[in-house]
Design goal:
alpha/beta, Rossmann fold, DNA Cyclobutane Dipyrimidine Photolyase, subunit A, domain 3, 3 domains, deoxyribodipyrimidine photo-lyase activity, Deoxyribodipyrimidine photo-lyase
Length: 428
C-alpha cells in the first residue's frame, strides 16, 4: 500500500498543523511518526522534564488518532536509522514536515531529504513554527535585519498584507490504519520528572504591559514551552490577540527576529555576534559560577531567579535579564556558560531566543544593551519586587543582617567597565 508520512517534530498537535493538514489532503493514507532522536536524548538527564512533556503530548496525540483507527509510529533511534527502517517496512511516496530552523535540525533535514531523494521519495516542507520564514523579512537591499525595531516594522507591514489563517480542523479519516505499540517513558530510557509544564494562559494579556515586569504576579502567559514544542500554533495565538495586546505581539516578533538572526548568522551559536567584543578576557571563576547556578550569590533577586529556574524549569523574564547581567557583568563570566546552563534547565529553551537574549545581556549581540549598562540587583528589586513577595517565596531564609553579597556592586560595575573597555581597545 502506498502511503505518505507526516513526521512530527516541534509541532506536537493535530489542530492547525500545516504539514499534517497538507498530508491528510494528499492522495495517500497518512502514517504519522515521531523519532526520539538518540543523538539528542543521550545528552540529557534521565528525568528531563522536556522529554516528559513530549511523551505526554505524544500520548494525547496517539489517543486522538486511535479514534480514527490510526496511531503514531514511534522510533527510538538515530534519525538515519529510523528512516532506513521505515523505508524498508512501508511503501512511502511522500513525506511531510514543518520546517525547523536550528542548525542541527536544518542539517538533519537536508540529510534526510537527500536520503529520500535517493529512494525517489519527495520531501514536502512547510512554514509552521513562525509566521514568516527567516528569509522572508529582509531589508530593501536584500540583506537581513540586525536591529529589532526596523525588523518589527517590516514584519508588521507584511502581516497586514498577509495575515496567516488558522487552518480548518483536519480530516483524520485519511489516516493509515494501524495500532502500533506506544512506548512508555521507561521504554525510551527516561523516568518521570517532578517538574511539570504549566498550561499556557492568555487571560492575563489584558494587563500584560503592566504586569510583565512584576515577578510575583502571575502576569506571564507560560506560552514559551508550548511554542517550543508546537502544542499550539503561533497563528492560533496571534488570531486571539486584540489591538491592545501589541506589547505581547512584540514579544512574539522578537522570537522571529532571533530565529532569523540564527539562520543568517549561524556562527552566533558559539561566537559573539559583534566580533569587536572578542577581546574581552572573562574571569570564568568556576566557584563563582557554581554559586550563581545554585542561587547563592547573596543578591536576593538573583538567587530567587536561579532557585525558581532549578526547581520549576521556569524563570520570570525580568529576572532572567537581572541574573544574566549579573553573571556577565558582576562576575565577568562568559555568556556562553550561562547560555548553556539555561539551555539545560529552561522548559521553554529555544536556541535562537536563548542565545539572542544572552548576547543581548552581555552586550555582545545584535541590537544589544550597551556594555556599560549594568543592572543593579538592589535597584531592580526596589523597582519590581519592593515588598519582596517574589524573593521571599524562593529565598525563605533571607535575613538582611547575614545575607552577604558575594561581590560589591560598585566594585563589580567598575571592574566590568574596565574589562569591556580594555577588550574593545585590544580588538582594535
Amino acid at each position: 500500500m502506498e502511503i505518505s508520512v507526516c513526521w512530527f517534530r516541534r509541532d506536537l498537535r493535530l489542530e492547525d498543523n500545516t504539514a499534517l493538514y497538507n498530508a491528510l489532503n494528499s492522495d495517500y493514507a497518512v502514517l504519522p511518526i515521531f523519532i526520539f532522536d538518540k543523538d539528542i536524548l543521550e545528552e540529557l538527564p534521565r528525568n528531563d522534564a522536556r522529554v516528559n512533556f513530549i511523551h505526554q503530548q505524544l500520548t494525547q496525540i496517539n489517543k486522538e488518532l486511535g479514534k480514527y483507527k490510526g496511531s503514531l509510529k514511534i522510533y527510538n533511534s538515530s534519525v538515519d536509522e529510523a528512516w532506513e527502517e521505515l523505508i524498508k517496512e512501508f511503501n512511502v511516496k511522500e513525506v511531510y514536515i514543518n520546517e525547523d530552523y536550528e542548525p542541527y535540525a536544518m542539517q538533519r533535514d537536508e540529510r534526510v531529504e537527500q536520503f529520500l531523494a535517493s529512494k525517489n521519495i519527495q520531501l514536502k516542507s512547510f512554514t509552521d513554527q513562525v509566521v514568516f520564514k527567516p528569509k522572508q523579512i529582509l531589508k530593501d537591499d536584500g540583506l537581513p535585519y540586525t536591529v529589532y525595531t526596523p525588523y518589527k516594522n517590516k514584519w508588521l507591514k507584511h502581516f497586514e498584507l498577509n495575515k496567516p489563517q488558522v487552518l480548518p480542523t483536519p480530516n483524520l479519516e485519511n489516516l493509515y490504519s494501524s495500532n502500533f505499540n506506544f512506548p512508555s517513558l521507561s521504554d525510551i530510557g527516561f523516568k518521570p520528572s517532578t517538574i511539570q509544564v504549566e498550561d499556557f494562559n492568555l487571560k492575563q494579556l489584558g494587563n500584560y504591559e503592566q504586569t510583565r515586569d512584576v515577578p510575583h504576579l502571575n502576569g506571564t502567559s507560560y506560552l514559551g514551552p508550548h511554542l517550543r514544542f508546537g502544542t499550539v500554533s503561533v497563528r492560533s495565538i496571534i488570531s486571539q490577540l486584540k489591538p491592545s495586546d501589541h506589547v505581547f505581539l512584540s514579544e512574539l516578533i522578537w522570537r522571529e527576529f532571533f530565529i532569523q538572526i540564527l539562520v543568517h548568522f549561524p556562527r552566533v551559536v558559539n561566537e559573539n555576534f559583534k566580533s569587536k567584543y572578542n577581546g574581552i578576557v572573562w574571569r570564568n571563576n568556576e566557584d563563582e559560577f557554581s554559586r550563581w547556578c545554585e542561587g547563592k550569590t547573596g543578591y536576593p533577586i538573583v538567587d530567587a531567579g536561579m532557585r525558581q529556574l532549578n526547581e520549576t524549569g521556569y524563570m520570570h523574564n525580568r529576572v532572567r535579564m537581572v541574573t544574566a547581567s549579573f553573571l556577565c557583568k558582576h562576575l565577568l563570566i562568559d555568556w556562553r556558560w550561562g547560555e548553556a546552563y539555561f539551555a539545560e534547565k529552561l522548559l521553554d529553551y529555544e536556541l535562537a531566543s536563548n542565545n539572542g537574549n544572552w548576547q543581548w545581556s552581555s552586550g555582545t549581540g545584535c541590537d544589544a544593551a550597551p556594555y556599560f549598562r549594568v543592572f543593579n540587583p538592589t535597584s531592580q528589586t526596589q523597582r519590581f519586587d519592593p515588598d519582596m513577595k517574589y524573593i521571599k517565596k524562593w529565598v525563605p531564609e533571607l535575613n538582611e543582617l547575614t545575607y552577604t553579597p558575594m561581590v560589591d556592586h560598585k566594585m563589580a560595575r567598575e571592574r566590568a567597565l574596565r574589562t569591556y573597555k580594555t577588550g574593545l581597545e585590544s580588538f582594535i
